[in-house]
Amino acid sequence: MDYHAWLKEHCPKKLTTAREAIRQIRPGSRVFIGTGCGEPQHLIHALMAEKELTDIQIYQMLTFTMAEYVDDPDFLRRFSLKLFFISEKMRKAAFEGKIDYLPAYLSQIPKLFSSQRIRLDVALIQVSPPDRFGYCSLGVSVDITRSGMENAPFVVAQVNPQMPRTWGDSFVHVEDFDCIVTHEEPLVEYLPEVTTEEVSRRIGLYVSELVEDGATLQVGFGQIPYAVLKYLDHKKDLGIHTQMITDGFLPLIESGVITNKKKTFLPGRIVTSLCMGTRALYDHVDNNPLYYFRSSEFVNDPVIIARNDRLISISSALEVDLTGQVCSDSTGYIFYSGIGDQVDFLRGSSMSEGGFSIIGLPSTAKKGTVSRIVPHLSQGAGVATTRGDVNFIVTEYGIAELQGQSIYQRVMELAQIAHPKFRSELVEEAKTRRYIFADQLPPPEDDLIFLENYKASVCLANGKTIVFRPLLPSDEIAYRDFFYSLAEDTIYYRFFHNKRSFSHETVQKQWASVDYRKNMSLVGLGPRGGFKEIIAIGSYALGEDGLAEVAFVTRENYQKLGVASYLLGALERIAKENGYQAFAATVLRDNLPMIKVFEKRYPHMTTREEPGGDLYVEMRFDQR
């Protein structure tokens, strides 16, 4: 259909030029402009060119084109630019005080317009050509654009054949426009610049550990959320409910990783609000029923988000303090980005059955000279996300789980994922604030990425899946809880006496010797409710004659299910890597289950009776 001819036939009086449309705007008007890559560039250029316009307040969520004008000395005299989110191109202007940042949750922005809290006079938007019924599509920018248009008395629409026609609640009728300007031009294209590829890779690997098959994902704005998508390529049947779609999703869609089959809310559809990417992405969403575009008050509503079971929110931050407070929109007093969709999705994911949130960030900034894990947020930094909303924090050094954790536990979780050179300093700062014990040992200053090779998931005979991983300093509370959950007989067989206390001092002595090489401890984590708890611990330590002394303890309800056998094999592999050739163990003579575990793996083991009747067992790795 020739949309030019259709428009001339059905609404000839609305057709006009950009200059003529802009000239109908009066000085002092409050003008809304469509978002990001969907912004009407041609209308913006015409607005800037109209020199008679003054005292214009411009509201926009995310702008690119305005960056071409903001340094013009005449700009600030004529326009006041109010942004809900500061793009990379506008950061310099934000630093210089040339724009006005408006902090707001994305889900609440449309209500600011509809309630007249922010009153609009004009909306400049961009749409696809009309169909034969007169319906245009808001295309890649539904988000707050629909509300901006609906709440402005005067609407100017740029009809651009390069704007995709997207499915969902994106359609608007030509009768809703006061002026129609036809102008074809390429849409704004945007790809986050991933400047820390190795850091992003490592963060992506940790994030992928947390994302299970069949989960529904939200992926926030920024290079880290964008970059981690590629490391989910081995997952199955992921679903998407997210504010923004980028090119990073395309490989996962094309390879069948994203199927949306397991979604519990709008299955089979990708629910989103806007697109920001390249022409390849815009061509992909064009007239594609896979996508269901809705406005921000719907997509970002925590109640709507929570209708997706196993909703995982993945977003980013600028810094995180040791108590779990998150800053994502400013560096000190300087505004850097925006609140955006983070809080909406953190709260929605927390209400989702089986859902949770992940905040990923590099451990350092300014070429490694500044830690992003900090004792306290920078002076002037805003708390976008409170310590009560945070679940997982991920850096290139690991995963910190904060939900339900005390300040002591949070400090240790976050210190061990900070950059190694800042860990001791963070622990010392925490001591001065009485967050942790005065004798608390800091996490090792090694890069422990190699510990990822020691993680595994094993399905037991009872159908439960156990996660095995190295014991970490932040496990102290869980470690002590495990000890106190054991029966007296189990404690006696492990420690050779009825040990009554497992104090902080006891744990500290153990940590003092753990180096994950010559001395190693692995834990087994079993399910409890929606979380995991320690159900077994296996360790080896440097003993006499250069042998590794090995010991295990498994909680009673997980005994005789192969847990100890798995730990023994896993510890042997690690011990071999670190130069050991044999295990040694001292076992009570009547501890028949443990003796059988040793005999099964090491049928040629040697034993001798110790004074007091205990058995000393030696198990050479080359005699299995």
Known CATH architecture of the largest domain: 3-Layer(aba) Sandwich
Which structural class do you get from the secondary structure elements?
alpha/beta
Rg for CA atoms: 30 Å
Name the CATH superfamily assignment of the largest domain: Acetyl-CoA hydrolase/transferase C-terminal domain
Helix content: 25-40%
The major pleated sheet works out as: 8 strands, mixed
Any idea of the CATH topology of the largest domain? Glutaconate Coenzyme A-transferase
Give the end-to-end Cα distance, rounded to a whole number of Å. Answer: 78 Å
- What percent of residues are in strands? 15-25%
Tally of individual domains: 3
Could you say which overall geometry the principal axes of the C-alpha atoms support? Answer: elongated
* Top-tier CATH class of the largest domain: Alpha Beta
**How many individual β-strands?**
34
Total DSSP helices: 21
List the uncertain runs. none
User: Please, what is the average pLDDT?
Assistant: 90
Looking across the biggest beta sheet, what order are the strands in?
A: 27-28-29-30-31-32-34-33
Features:
Aminopeptidase; 34 strands; seven-stranded parallel β-sheet; eight-stranded mixed β-sheet; Glutaconate Coenzyme A-transferase; alpha/beta; 624 residues
